Amino acid sequence: FIDRFSTYYTPAVMIVAALVAIVPPLVLGGLWNEWIYKGLAILLIGCPCALVISTPAAIAASLSAGARRGLLMKGGAVLETLGKITKVAFDKTGTLTEGKPKVTDIVAVGRTEAETLALAADLEIGSSHPLAMAILDEARKRDINPTSASEAKAIGGEGIVGKVGGVELFFGSPKAAEKRCALTQDLRDRIAKLNDEGKSVSVLLAGRVVAGVIAMRDEPREDAKEG
C-alpha cells in the first residue's frame, strides 16, 4: 500500500510545493525568499512521516506475532494480500486432519468383522504404510492378536498378498481385487459410497472369494472448524 500511495502522493506534494515557491514571485511579484520558504514549509508539512514510519512497524509487529504462533510469512506483501483472499486451500494431512488414518468401516462378507479384520492384520504385520498401521491399530483396539502371513509380498499399485492357514489372501484396491474376483453390484455400490465420503477402501479376498471391505480415513482434528 505504501508503495502505491507514494507513487502518486510524493510527486503531488513536490509539484504543489514548487508551484507555491515559483508562481507568486513570477506572477504576482512576491518576494522570492518569502515564497521559497513557504514552498519548503509545504514540502515539510506534506511529508507523511507518521504513515511512512508506522507501516514498516506494523508489518514487523505482524510478522513477529505470526512467528510466535508458528506462522511464517514471507514479507509484508503477504500481509497485504491477506485482505484480498476469499478462499483458502490447505494441505489437509496433519493440518486439518490428525495425520493418522483410522479404520472407519468394516463390511464383512461371510464372516464376522473381527475375522475380517484379523485376516487383514495378518497380511499387514511388519508394514510401515500408514493404512497398514491403521489396520493394526484397530486390531489392537479389538484385542486381536494377528499372526504373520507366510509368503507375504507387496504388489506395487495393487496391494499385498500372502497365505494364512494355507489360504491365499489378497488385500488391496477394489480395482486390483476385481482382476482376481468378481464383485457384486451391491458391494460396488458400498465401495462407491465409502469413496464419496473421502475414505480409502481396500478389499480383502480369501481364496479368491470376497471376505470383506475395510474403509479408512484421516479424520479431521477436533479443533478444525467445519466449513
Main features:
cadmium ion transmembrane transporter activity, alpha+beta, rod-shaped, 6 strands, 227 residues, single chain, six-stranded antiparallel β-sheet, 18% strand
List the topology elements:
Blueprint: H1 2-28, H2 32-46, H3 49-68, H4 76-82, E1 102-108, H5 113-124, H6 130-141, E2 150-155, E3 159-164, E4 167-172, H7 174-180, H8 185-196, E5 200-206, E6 209-217
Antiparallel strand pairs: 1-6, 2-3, 3-4, 4-5, 5-6
Helix pairs in contact: 1-2, 5-6
Describe this structure in words.
This protein has 227 residues and is α+β, with helices and mostly antiparallel strands. It folds into two domains: 2-82; 102-217, Calcium-transporting ATPase, cytoplasmic domain N, CATH 3.40.1110. It is 49% helix and 18% strand. The protein has eight helices and six strands. It has helices at 2-28, 32-46, 49-68, 76-82, 113-124, 130-141, 174-180, 185-196, and strands at 102-108, 150-155, 159-164, 167-172, 200-206, 209-217. Helix 1 (2-28) runs antiparallel to helix 2 and helix 5 packs across helix 6.
- What fold name goes in the CATH topology slot of the largest domain? Calcium-transporting ATPase, cytoplasmic domain N
Number of domains: 2
Largest sheet: 6 strands, antiparallel
Specify the overall morphology. rod-shaped
- What is the count of β-strands? 6
Helix segment tally: 8
Helix content: 40-55%
**Kindly state the mean pLDDT as a whole number?**
85
- CATH architecture of the largest domain, by name, is 3-Layer(aba) Sandwich
End-to-end C-alpha gap? 31 Å
* Radius of gyration, CA atoms, in whole angstroms: 35 Å
- Give the CATH class of the largest domain: Alpha Beta
Order of helical and strand elements: HHHHEHHEEEHHEE
